[in-house]
Structure formats: structure tokens, C-alpha cells
Amino acid sequence: MLDQKLIRENPASVEKNLSLRGKVFKISHVHELTIKKREIDTEISILQSESKKLSKLIGQEISRSQNNDSLELKNLKKKGNDYRIKISEFEEKQRTLNKQINNEISNLPNFPSKDAPIGKDESNNVQVKTWGDPILKENVKSHWEIGERLNLFESVKSTKISKSRFITLIGNGARLERALINFMLDIHSKNGYLELIPPALVNSDSLLGSGQLPKFSNESFKCSNDDLWLSPTAEVPLTSFHRNEIIDPKLLPIKYVAYSPCFRREAGSYGRDTKGLIRLHQFNKVELYWFSDPSKSLTAHEQITADAESILQKLNLPYRLIDICTGDLGFSSSRTFDLEVWLPSSKCYREISSCSNCLDFQARRSSIRTKIDKKNTYIHTLNGSGLAIGRTMAAILENGLQTDGSVKIPDALVPYFGSNLIKCN
RNA sequence: GGAGAGGUGGCUGAGUGGUCGAAAGCGAACGACUCGAAAUCGUUUAAUAGGCAACUAUUCGUGGGUUCGAAUCCCACCCUCUCCGCCA
Asked: Which positions in strand B are less than 7 Å from the protein's CB atoms?
């Protein structure tokens, strides 16, 4: 959520900042509404003040005179009634205005950071660095072919259970998934993150707080009988874990690592990544999350990204770091570094982690503050996948494929998986 | 799902129509006493919006309503707790 005061006082700078996203944002309408609201607020405040004084006077009058039916009292009450009617008229207007303003502002995305590369879409993203040596061989089997051959997962049967884009993990596939989750949780815990397993169902306020609602209701699954949604990412429950709180500054930064299943409708992605583990309606993810002192979120952003990278390095998976350009930034983010892992079969890097600094955007939506110099100040929130489990498995299968069709398990994962090889039957 | 109880400031908890934004206690901060500390005493101690400030307004789960005036009365909803039932 952008600062309403800023919209009211400096609409030009708001439009200018938003336009970095490569689209035109017209905020003149909200701007007018905020000014109107301000006038009405003042008007109401004055009326209430007078009405309050009058009520006190009536109270004093009654206790003094004992005559509850005097003409004077009747006149005073009549006057008070006039106030009440007038005030309720203004309040009606105020309610409508508030609704309109909230609607419009909660649909506005965060400002891109000044440090983010300027660009229109993903083609303008900037590669910052690469790590490891990508395998460049012809005819490398895709991870779904490998998985099918080794009987690690099953998608056709899963459409019976649910529909397309769901998967059932089997045997070593299930075990590898479990090993990856434990491995990542352990590493991050050792690095100072507190482990959480949050609810997988979240209410509308939670989705609003982290920025998935109101704009992206189409991208999450909704429970029809309740105000509950299947959480698309642990970022949602983690943000709301501290919603409506004022956090003791001594506790900052708060760092959480959370395992959670993630559910996404993937509307509009028909025909893309239809096979394998890359794009599913349900997938597992280990998420990193920081509540940071506002003055320290830039270094926090570097740290959270490095923490996500450390998993790829320990698994010895080649990857690159991408600085997302202003036009490709997610709704709540001011700056995002994507980690993309090398997939030999498609000879390209695929997103496996997204590390974002949302500054005070989510904190304002969720009302999460801390005391700085005795003033309540919105904290900064950062999130990063550390990592998406399914995509990590895909990368391990393709990068670890041996000439005999077996798959080598990265050394660091062996203690978790219990074997250094997935053999062909 | 059935029956009951309840949601008040950082916490405990009083308050059933009129200076109640709210007693009291705890906690916290500051000061006095002390070489220092404990104890004691004194003062202070909610948030939000607007304003440079004085101040004004709002907020007693949420949203409506009654009234000149609502923490207090009415309606709806949400949540929590206890017991029973069901259940991993």
C-alpha cells in the first residue's frame, strides 16, 4: 500500500515513480478523493466537537435543574438532534469515500527501487552473475523423462485424483522431495532463521496484506464456504504472522524460514510447461522471510539472496543471478533478484527463487510497525524462496543424470536422501 | 455440530446511559533517597488522523442502530474459552 498522504500531497511524484514500471498510472482521481476526504474529515471533526460540548451542557443542565421537561432543555436537545443528522450525512459521504480510496490505492503496486534496472519487460532484466558450469550437451533427457523412467512421480494418474498440473511423487521421488525440504530447513535454521510451519489456508485480509488481493484473486484457489484461500506462498501467512503489531526494535531483524505447500491457479499459462515439475497447481517451497529495520533492508536484501544462493551452491547446481527490471517487478516488490537454475534439457536457466525487498509496502497494508525514536514506523519486509522444491528436484535430475540413466545425488544431500544415487531398475 | 461463558489500555481487571479515554494493581520509564543496589516514595506511561504547536476528533472485538449523549441499551457478524459430540 502506498502512503495516502503522499498521494494527497505529491501526486506527480507518485505517478512518476509508478511509471517506472513501464505503464501509465493515473492517480488524479484518487488524489481528488483524498483531498475531498480530508475536507470532510475536518468538517466532521468540527461538528462533533460542537455536538460534544452541547451534550455535556445538557448533562450538566439536567443534573442541576431536576426539571427534565423544561423548554430550554427541549431546545438544546433539538439542537443536538440537528447536529446528529448533519454529522450522519457527512459520515455517509466519508464511508463511501474511504471505500473508494482504499479500493483504488490497494490496486496500486509498489514503487520500483531507484537501483532496479529500468525496463519494460523480462527482456530488460539484467544478468548480474553466473555460478557453476552449465552442462552443454545435446539431447539431454528432460527431468520428466528421467522421472518417468525412474518411477519418481506420476502425472497421468494425478489428473484422476485432481486435474492436470498436479503430481504424485512416488518412492525415491517422494523421498527426494522430503530430503530437500529437510536439507533446506536445516541449513537456514543454522543460519539464524527460526523455522515455522504456517497454516496453508489463509483469509482474505492476509492476502490483502501481502498484496495478492484485490488485484490477483484469479490466481489463488478459494474455498467456497469460508473466507479462506489456499495460500499461494508462505509469504502470505508469514507477513500476517505479525499483522497489526508493533514490534520491539530490539527484536529486529526477525528471520523466519517456513516450509509450506503452495497453491496457484496458473491462470493464463495454458500450454506452458505442461510436463514435469516446473509449473504445478500445488508445489512445496521453503521460504525465507525477514522483518527488517527500515534503514537496514538493503543489506538484508543482499543477505537473503545470498542465503538462497547458498542452497544452490551446496547442491552444486549452476545458476545465475538476475536483477529484475522495473517493468517486470512483482506487485509488492521494489527490487527483486531472481535465482535461475540451469536446466540442461532445455539449455536455459529457469527461475527457482525470487528474492524481493518490499520495503514498507506490505507493512503498511498489514500494519506492522516498530518504534524508532519513539515514533511508530513501518518496518520493511523481505521474502525469498530458499528454494522451490519441485524445481530443485527437476534441476537435480537433469544435472545429475549419468550416462547409464541413473541420477547422482549431490553430496550435501546424501545424508538426507540416504543414498548417493538413484539407480535404474 | 449442541450447550454455556466471554471479548476493555503492554498485561491483570473494575466499570450497565452524562466531564469515562476509562478505577485499581502489575509491568515499564524518569526522579528522590543510596557509595551503589534492593526496598520505599514521587512523577510519567495507548493508538490513529489532522496541526509547527497548543489542540481537536476517533478508537473499550467488528459493522450498523437507538439517544442531545453509548464501554454501558438494541441488531447482525467475527473471534476466544469451557463442557459435550465427532475426529488426525
From this structure: 18-19, 47-50, 56-58, 64-69
